[in-house]
Amino acid sequence: MEYRFYIGTKVIFGKNCVFASRQELEKLGKRAFIVCGRNSARASGALKDVAGILEEAGIAYEIYDNVENNPTLENVADAGCLASRFRADCIIGIGGGSPLDAAKAVAVLAVNEIEPVELYSGSFKKKPLPIIAIPTTAGTGSEVTPYSILTRKDLRTKMSFGSEELFPRVAFLDARYTESMSYDTTVDTAVDAFSHAVEGYLSKRSTPVSDVLAVEAVSLFGQCIEPLLEGKIDFSVREKLLHASMLGGMVISHTGTTLVHSLGYSLTYFKSVPHGRANGVFMKEYLLFNYEYAKEKIDNIFKLLGIKDTEEFGDIMDRLAFIKRDYSEDEIKLYASLAIKQKGPSYNIRNVCSEDLFDIMKRSLLSKRL
Ligand code: NAP
Ligand code: FE
Questions:
Q1: pLDDT, tens digit, for every residue of 272-305?
Q2: CA distance 251 to 199
């Protein structure tokens, strides 16, 4: 047996945890640059809590509240410039995966005079600034991953870069901050967390430790399916989802994502389908494609979810990750050709070629079920 396990993030989970562990915010630096989206940091209440603590501690801060959904290189370059001008000594990311991923890019760009595309080298002359991550969605797990996923207009897709130095130093997980999410975003992000756990579990790079985490995340998601379908999402469900999302993040920190994410990026890039929903669209066909190669694990997923088979699974995914199926064969061909260039397919438990991706996409997007 051989494996490595490393998560470079101190996780602090619980209601009001930023107040309970405020010293973690106070000791990081004297000039904090806060990276967030236009609305979520305020709507969730997280920005107010953090700003109050910083003010009481006499820590100067500046807020960049212009992170787009699925941030582009141009977007993070803009924020990086301002962080550098502010002479920030730490970065606080507040929001969903978009602001958290942007915060990681900003942590590099604030201290390195490089073109944003050079982020993809993954090694930087000057150490990125320390990052505090405060998620307001329960999906990406970005608060415990070393990855940042940015939109590449030049390549017409999304692409991740990563470095161990980009693990946030501290992650505060308070499910109160996820209560202001809309129903749709709650479901979309929950499906993202689930897909991290499943793709990691079925990855060639899975390990005995990542499997333990993945199994727990799948089981937690299973407990949340009914509340998600019925829209009865109380605080305890939100805590389960946030915990599952963090576990999923720890899984992909070791395994990466595989087919589903690589396929999903095109739906997000070309059709603005939210990230998690784009993943959900491909889950059923992905499991069918891999079934003979990972029978035991896939049967275990169904068992953990309390469902019979792939058909029942597909029905649930259709209800959670509903999209309009108005795709042409030419579009699907293009998306499959972009997906095969991602790293994800090479980590899938069964070897994959471009035709396989085309097939999975076609079945998922041209299905008669909807
Ligand atoms: P998101 O793009 O961060 O946010 C989606 C929408 O939800 C935004 O409009 C956002 O508003 C809103 N929102 C977020 N939290 C809210 C709250 N508590 N109350 C009200 N509105 C809220 O969504 P996400 O799914 O969390 O992140 C997706 C991004 O993460 C993608 O770019 C994806 O590729 C990436 N990702 C990263 C990793 C990783 O390991 N780093 C893994 C998976 C996915 P604002 O615009 O105001 O923020
Ligand atoms: Fe994801």
A1: 999 999 999 999 999 999 999 999 999 999 999 9
A2: 9
Ligand 2 being an ion, which residues bring their Cβ within 5 A of it? 192
Rounded distance from Cα 59 to ligand 2 centre (Å): 33
Task: Quote the CA–CA distance of 150 and 302 in Å, as a whole number.
Answer: 32
Question: pLDDT averaged over the chain?
Answer: 96
Q: Give, in order, the Cα–Cα distances in Å from 12 to each of 6, 31, 115, 192, 370.
A: 17, 22, 34, 22, 42
Name the closest ligand to CA 137.
1
Give the closest residue (by CA) to ligand 1 atom 23: 96
What ligand is nearest to the CA atom of residue 188? Answer: 1
* pLDDT tens figures, 225-274: 999 999 999 999 999 999 999 999 999 999 999 999 999 999 999 999 99
Ligand 1, from 185, 196, 273: best to mutate by most atoms within 8 Å of Cβ?
185
Grade residue 370 by pLDDT with cuts at 50, 70 and 90.
very low
Confidence (pLDDT) at 367: 64
Strand stretches in 73-199, DSSP E: 90-95, 131-135, 147-152, 157-162, 170-173
Average pLDDT over residues 76-88: 98
Number of other CB atoms surrounding residue 150 within 10 Å:
24
Proximal ligand: closest to the CA of 72 = 1
Q: Residue written as tokens 């669209």?
A: 281
Atom of ligand 1 nearest to the CA of 147: 41
Rounded to the nearest angstrom, the distance between the alpha carbon of 135 and the centre of ligand 1 is 9
Query: Beta strands of the chain (E only): which ranges?
Result: 10-13, 31-37, 60-67, 90-95, 131-135, 147-152, 157-162, 170-173
User: Which ligand 1 atom is the nearest neighbour of the CA of 39?
Assistant: 47
Q: What's the CA-to-centroid distance between 277 and ligand 1, angstroms? A: 12
Give the list of residues 6+ apart from residue 85 with CB closer than 8 angstroms, or none.
none
